[in-house]
Amino acid sequence: MAVFYLTQALGGYLGAAVVGFINAVTDPPWIGEDVNDSSLDLYFFVLCGLGVLNFFAYVWVSSKYQLQTHHDSKVLSRLIPSSPTPPR
After folding, report:
1. Is the C-alpha dihedral spanning 67, 64, 56, 9 positive or negative?
2. What are phi and psi of 39, to 5 degrees?
3. DSSP line for 20-62
4. For the chain, which terminal residue's Cβ has fewer other Cβ atoms within 10 angstroms, N or C?
5. Distance CA 15, CA 20 (A)
6. Is-contact 52 46, C-beta < 8 A?
7. 48 occurs within a structural domain
8. Which domain holds residue 29?
9. Residue 2, helix vs strand vs coil
10. Which residue, among 58, 25, 51, 52, has the nearest Cα to 39 in the 3D structure?
11. Cβ distance 30 to 40 under 8 Å?
C-alpha cells in the first residue's frame, strides 16, 4: 500500500513539474489563469507525445529482456516439489 501512495505522490510532483516547465517555455503560457483562454489542446498533445515516448521506451527495454533459466537440479528441486509416486 505504501508503494501505491509513493507512486501517486511522485506522479503528482512530476505532473506539477511538467506544467511548470511548459508554462516557462511557452509564450503566452499554455495553461493560464482562465481555462477558456488557455491552449489546453497543445498541452494534451505534449502529454500524448510523452506517452508515445514512454511506449517506445517500454518496447525497447522489453526487447532487451532475456528470461533467466536455471539448469541446476538443486535449484529446480527446491522450486518444484517432486510429486509422490502412486502406490502399486
Report:
1. positive
2. -105, 65
3. HHHHHHSSS-SS-SSGGGS-HHHHHHHHHHHHHHHHHHHHHHH
4. C
5. 9
6. no
7. yes
8. 18-60
9. helix
10. 25
11. yes
User: Rounded to an integer, what distance in angstroms lies between the CA atom of residue 47 and that of residue 22?
Assistant: 11
Residue with cell 498541452: 43
Residue 47 lies in a domain: yes
Q: How many domains does the chain have?
A: 1
Per-residue pLDDT tens, the chain, 88 aa: give them.
Answer: 999 999 999 999 999 999 999 999 999 899 988 889 899 999 999 999 999 999 999 999 999 988 877 665 566 566 666 666 666 6
Residue 25 covered by a domain = yes
pLDDT tens sequence across 46-70: 999 999 999 999 999 999 988 877 6
CA distance 17 to 36: 22
Q: Which residue's C-alpha cell is 477558456?
A: 36
Is residue 83 in a domain?
Answer: no
